[in-house]
Amino acid sequence: xxxxxxxxxxxxxxxxxxxxxxxxxxxxxxxxxxxxxxxxxxxxxxxxxxxxxxxxxxxxxxxxxxxxxxxxxxxxxxxxxxxxxxxxxxxxxxxxxxxxxxxxxxxxxxxxxxxxxxxxxxxxxxxxxxxxxxxxxxxxxxxxxxxxxxxxxxxxxxxxxxxxxxxxxxxxxxxxxxxxxxxxxxxxxxxxxxxxxxxxxxxxxxxxxxxxxxxxxxxxxxxxxxxxxxxxxxxxxxxxxxxxxxxxxxxxxxxxxxxxxxxxxxxxxxxxxxxxxxxxxxxxxxxxxxxxxxxxxxxxxxxxxxxxxxxxxxxxxxxxxxxxxxxxxxxxxxxxxxxxxxxxxxxxxxxxxxxxxxxxxxxxxxxxxxxxxxxxxxxxxxxxxxxxxxxxxxxxxxxxxxxxxxxxxxxxxxxxxxxxxxxxxxxxxxxxxxx
Length: 435
Known about the structure:
The chain is mainly β. It is 8% helix and 33% strand. The strands form five sheets. Strands 9, 14, 16, 17, 18, 20, 21, 23 and 24 form a nine-stranded antiparallel beta sheet that branches. Strands 13-12-11-10-19-8-22 form a seven-stranded antiparallel beta sheet, with no helix packed on it. Mean pLDDT is 86; it is low at 1-29, 84-99 and 118-126. Keywords: Signal. It holds the Pfam family Neprosin.
């Protein structure tokens, strides 16, 4: 279904693809004064000048930044841009090679079947999930909401360079598990997955909880992964879902998040808008901001819809939150394998197990309860779908499941008429059977 499209045009200077102008050099070493100077410099790059500011009840500060001043435009391929309406003729310069990048304000196409499915979903689940900062205001048109990064956020990171980045080897590889290396990366998972075809997107309705985190350097998240390439140094990944991460955010709130990498989390990519890459167009949803309400054990259940798909016309990877919020896109030039298609889709949970005191962490995944407890007690993904080469949403075929230690966190697949393909997942971590 073609959508009406407006566009912006950026005049850019071509440069090295994977350098990140927003990254700050240096590490935790050096004198305190040097580190403070580096932190201030990094904050200046991250926190763009706002046109309006909103204080959230949870303590966050949301800056409403003009859409043309967002972190995406720090990328070398989008730097030195000029923003103007729709198309303009190519400019020539005798000293520099320049090119025109078209910035989409809407996807050219949504996946076929999306809106029919959304109508059914909205009838089944009338609960509305929102973000806390909405209680105190909204961002004006032509701006995007960005959660302000504070000095203490950066100081919690192991280094300024690693702030906002995942560790290497954090993506589950269900095709190759070495029992002797189960916790090499400190990451554990309970997921469903498909592989063996070309995939152009994925969708899921994800149950929202607030799992307990034992250590400040651990996290718990529930997300979908769009994966391309091998699980070596060249892995491409687009990720979206919810997470609880005291180290990244400074609290235990459940937050909407995204992530991307084109080199297996080594140098490229980051959470949310903490580096250049993702181009946001939506003025209503802030990535990294708290979402509420959340599900209660034995009580009300709440979930969110996440859709990521590749626009078949422009080739960019788009993100939609809920049935109404198209948030923005990852330009195809960020990736190698995902410039074409994904080779694997994963859905599920991930935790960091730092093995405090030499035993398994008690950090919870999902609701903190095992799948067999079922609805209202265990966490779930329902109506999981993939986007095929014809831009159609469809049920995945040949869904597998994977977990490193099922006595700590487990997953159980299912299928029925109301929920389509679904699974329950999660667990408490350390228990009598998970020492």
